[in-house]
Fold this protein.
Amino acid sequence: MGVSSGEPVGLGLDLGGSSIKYAVLVGDGAEVRIERTGLHEIVGARDAATVSRMLGEIASELATEFGGSVTLGIGLPGLFDAESGVPTLLPNFPPDWVGYPLRDQVQLATGMSVQLINDARAFALAEARLGAARGARNAICVVLGTGVGGGVILNGELWFGAGTGGEVGHQTVELDGPPCGCGNRGCVEAIAGSAALLAGAGRATVREVFEAARRGDAQAQAAITRSIRAVAAGLGNAYAVLAAEVFVIGGGIADAGDQVLVPLREELRSRMHLAPAETVSLRPAELGRFAGAVGAALFGARGVALH
Ligand SMILES: [Zn+2]
């Protein structure tokens, strides 16, 4: 439907705590377009077998509709073993997910070639190919939300290193700082993630924190400043090692726009002394809440279709 015959189709699914977002990409290596995005709520059981079946059903329905040569990428809010396609850490899902053969199960159910990717790495890939970091050779991308996820583009390619490369949010920025979900202390995420922001501001939602700060609430302002300083320190550290020319900031906290971006730029400049500040551009993400699904689709099609 709406797709000229023979064009490769890349499906991307982005697994979140309460929904599965999807994106359909169409095109070849020279030109890729986002054909459709959408969302399915996860209602009821969230065990691995049930949700895995749901992932397969969504992919199969889209494949039937769009046809052609179809690949599938799945973005996960956690970590997995790349070789076996088995999740190793999914903090927001029941424990039975760890060790579940997710990639193989979805592959079996759909008959598609399936690739898994961390959701923040998928966000980075999408912003690098089709969004705010388009054309940049080196970029550091950060998702500011419940967690602080990240992804790094080096020489035009998403960087994985030995597997988990790009975890900008798990750099230590306070040596004896608060404990982090990863087991370390003083990570950017432990200080700048939304749980820390809400606790510091004494508010129930991120939106309330930023509204209170705009009205002059000192506690909210201090909590925001603390978060921003931690993120800036992390970005400054990453810059010192990688010298990327573009930073991309996305996620729920970044939705506050200039209330985050302006002080973050300022704080980052105060920490960057190795290169002129003008050589670096800090930009808001462009692809919105479906960036993860788009990136998963791009990754799923890697080396097969699209690119
Ligand atoms: Zn951590």
